[in-house]
Write a sequence for this structure.
């Protein structure tokens, strides 16, 4: 799942560099000695704006689809088909049948290489209870409409991640974006209407460009592009945080013995970032760069690594199980808040910590 986020962030980085160059390029074009270059200045502006919005929406759409598929594939790797979330099983069956009914598999870029035989074979493995089995990717990621807020929500609801935007509005990346935009310190969750309106405007502008083109009066300027990029980046990071949190919850919280639940926070959080706490000595070995995650209000909302350990004011590389310490100070690389329950893993899960 991390590679999915890295891929969209790389595209957003390229688009940010493109936007940064626009004003400089426009100055050069407007003052160019060749009259043909000057005459095509406005045309280039419209084409630049169209290319930007189409590329940005394409990257966002691919991110949501790939993240949905990565989560579903991971679930299928450790869960029998009969025990998958009922929403996923229903969507997979219905959309697999729809794929077969279309009768044009293998045509076009979207279904290139996909055959009726592939779809039927995979569906047979699933419905006959065989193991291992393989889901039909195009059935899992199928969506009829552009990714407005309700469509994003429906895509993840089918995976058993309900009301994802309610969780996303509390994620650090989106909260920090909103506070920066408002010019205030990070505080309450982002209003749900802000997410809905931003996605609606994003989709509508993309559709306008794709279907009717752009006019000089409807062009996004570089500042508008930067603002849209900032929202999309923070929203993608926040969605990824929520989906990874759900993965950690299913894989390591609900399964007995898969992780070590730490005792209540005795003191803290400390430091400006609120990333240091004191807990009762865990019933397991604690070491630097150990995977750790935090659960609050019934969901995993932050995850990272142990970056500092102290016992009686002394820095330590590790604390062994047989240590006589009563408590341990831990510094992690995320903000801990009141009510956070911390969990430790004894080894890294490459899905979360490459």
């Amino acid at each position: 799942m991390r590679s999915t986020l890295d891929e969209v962030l790389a595209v957003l980085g390229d688009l940010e560099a493109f936007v940064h160059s626009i004003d400089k390029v426009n100055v050069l074009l407007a003052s160019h000695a060749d009259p043909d270059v000057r005459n095509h200045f406005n045309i280039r502006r419209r084409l630049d704006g169209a290319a930007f919005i189409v590329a940005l929406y394409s990257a966002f759409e691919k991110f949501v689809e790939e993240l949905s598929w990565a989560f579903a594939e991971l679930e299928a790797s450790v869960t029998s088909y009969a025990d998958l979330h009922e929403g996923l099983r229903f969507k997979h069956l219905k959309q697999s049948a729809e794929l077969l009914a279309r009768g044009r598999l293998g045509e076009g870029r979207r279904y290139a290489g996909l055959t009726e035989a592939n779809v039927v074979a995979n569906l047979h493995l699933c419905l006959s209870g065989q193991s291992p089995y393989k889901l039909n990717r195009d059935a899992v990621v199928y969506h009829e409409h552009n990714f407005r807020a309700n469509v994003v929500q429906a895509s993840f609801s089918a995976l058993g991640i309900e009301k994802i935007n309610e969780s996303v509005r509390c994620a650090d990346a989106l909260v920090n974006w909103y506070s920066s935009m408002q010019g205030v310190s990070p505080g309450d969750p982002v209003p749900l209407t802000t997410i809905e309106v931003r996605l609606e405007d994003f989709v509508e502008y993309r559709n306008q460009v794709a279907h009717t083109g752009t006019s000089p009066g409807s062009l996004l300027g570089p500042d508008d592009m930067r603002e849209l990029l900032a929202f999309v980046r923070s929203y993608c990071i926040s969605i990824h945080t929520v989906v990874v949190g759900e993965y950690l919850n299913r894989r390591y919280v609900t399964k007995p013995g898969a992780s070590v639940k730490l005792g209540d926070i005795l003191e803290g959080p400390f430091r400006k970032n609120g990333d240091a706490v004191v807990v009762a000595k865990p019933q397991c070995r604690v070491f630097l760069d150990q995977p750790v995650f935090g659960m609050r209000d019934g969901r995993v909302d932050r995850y990272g690594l142990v970056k500092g350990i102290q016992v009686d004011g002394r820095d330590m590389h590790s604390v062994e199980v047989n240590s006589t310490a009563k408590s341990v100070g831990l510094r992690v690389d995320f903000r801990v808040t009141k009510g956070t329950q911390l969990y430790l893993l004894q080894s890294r899960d490459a899905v979360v910590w490459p």
Summary: The chain has eleven helices and ten strands. The first helix runs from residue 2 to 30. The beta strands are 260-261, 265-270, 276-280, 286-287, 291-296, 299-311, 314-315, 318-319, 327-332, 341-344. The chain has a mean pLDDT of 90.
